[in-house]
Amino acid sequence: MRAGLFIPCYVDALHPEVGIATLELLERLGVEVSYPIDQTCCGQPPASNGDQESAARAERVFVRSFAECDAVVGPSASCVRQIRDHLDALEQTDDVRRVRRATFEIVEFLHDVLRVESLPWTEFPHRVGLHNSCSMVRGIGLASPSEVMGPAFNKAEDLLRKVKGLTLVPIDRVDECCGFGGTFSLTGGAVSARMGLARVDDHVRHGAEWITSCDVSCLMHLRGIASRQRRDVKFVHIAQVLNGGPM
Amino acid sequence: MRRAPVVRPAARAAEFIAQDAIHEPAHDARLWDLRVRRDAAARGVHEWERLRDLASKIREHTLGRLDAYLEEFEHNAERKGIRVHWARDAGEHNRIVFDIFRARGVTEVVKSKSMLQEECGMTPFLEERGIRVTETDLGERIQQLDGQPPGHIVMPAIHKTRADIARLFAREIGSDAGNDDPRYLTESMRRSLRERFLAAGACMTGANFAVAGTGAFVVCTNEGNADLGASLPPLHVASIGIEKIVPRTEHLGVLVRLLSRSALGSPITRYTSHFAGPRRGGEMHVVLVDNGRSRLLGREEFRRSLKCIRCGACMNTCPVFRHSGGLAYGSIYSGPIGAILGPAMDERKFRELPFHSTLCGSCTQVCPVKVDISDQILAWRRVLSAGAQTPLLRRQAVRTAGRILGSPKILRAVTKAGRRLLAGAPRILAGSRLLSPWTQHRDLPPAPRRSFREWYLDERKGRGTKQP
Fold it and tell me: Is the pTM of this model over 0.90?
């Protein structure tokens, strides 16, 4: 299996450790990983602001970077959701459609494509709260949304349960938005911060020592709020946990 | 034409949060509780998702043949002795209603809750012309006495605490300001409203559904106020939006089962009254109102918003709404559904509403008639952005972001410069115009030594230590 590694712009700039964990994790699982060096971004910042013309610039680079890959894998449900559902500022050529179909979030890739059964190198003896982000649940379907009546599932939890020593902490509002929302974190600051603090406190109240998620953006926002409000909890991306813990 | 000022929901929400440590947490907790009750009620109906599917199809089918169903409704209603009027817009609606009252010498009216009448600005219109209008839904009455529009389409005063209401009632109807027992407050209002019911020359209602096949319309309440109103004065005028039509009575078997479960988590509203003609010796009028609906019907990307049955489930589930308060939206329809109906009514005034959202998608999943609310919020952003209806600075920032993200070389340079600033001068960065909206509420992350890309080039393409 050959895969192109998709490292979203803010992961590249601010959380390289998440990119490294994703790369190492894929390699441990025998995937041949290439990293297209000239990639930029999924185009979400302009796209979710409604600016399709600007989004097209980033989309073009994305498609060009990954056109040769069998699969594209990245540590961000939000960016993968953008590629899959909203990369539509470009003409939908065969290349565009193929890249959109071939793009996976890391947990999804492990769970559905590689069908990982065990993660023998992992150990994380901590109480962990899983932030089921909107993009994970309602975006790319990693878990059953709490609003919809039907059988419950959660692929991220499935993988976390394979991690030695890890205790998943139940929370009250299982898939409530943390308030990041891209530029909403700037334009709707007060509401965004209240939503973030409510999420952090839900986890803290239930005794979580760590909060993890498939979305670095949510974690960045939550970490910033927890630090400002002096909440005693740490943050780690799920790829790091599945790769054996934070470096 | 006089242009209404642009509503700034984020600023109004910030005020709602900042007022004290009581209102915003209480608003969030109460509405979340309704979401929990809705989930429990939905779980109790094993065919819930199939009902949503059916409801969505019924609504879409009806909207596709709205003209025919409306005429069928008119025909059947008139046969039952209901007078049917057609209003193109809010102004026509208000004049029709006023003319009915003036011709009959009516000077006092009791009304049950109607979002459409709110939308038309009917109460101020009638009051300016000497007709006293009294809201009889408890929540609406609270809002009327406080001079505020409703903060929620189902629970108009949900943003108020019991203490707020005790103070308001003491001021307005002379109850005890120190007694905030809900039973006492409700009883005080019941007594005060009885006088208005008895004095009224006419009753007004809205309608939740109007059945084409029978010409009857359905009003759902939990307080019975619409029924009391319709039973006392001999004149009943109902305002009905043209999208409220259902083809046959049996379709209510789907929609009514979804309505109250979605709204409040109760199986059905306490009163689900079918009005099928005037009382003996009385008169019944229906005003069918367009007010922008047929225009919306003609817009392919937004027409599905007309499927809405006004249950408010999208508001209860929306965390942005719960933490903002309904009045922040400055619109009769607030929350997610307001974010797509608002700009359809006044693109300029409500241009910020679609941006007051995280696009979390919960509204779409909870909607009993499957309106794709979240996707329509995004579609509105596209329309508003393309029409230059977004603030210039934001538009320029977004365009600049597009340029940076469209060029690997520029992005690399910006990443590097940003990381250096974050490492060397975090205070300056935190105080910058660009980042202060972030740092007002959040600490910045520590700067990594290298970007992922630099690490990759050092470690995987060249040599070096394995430390980010």
Answer: yes
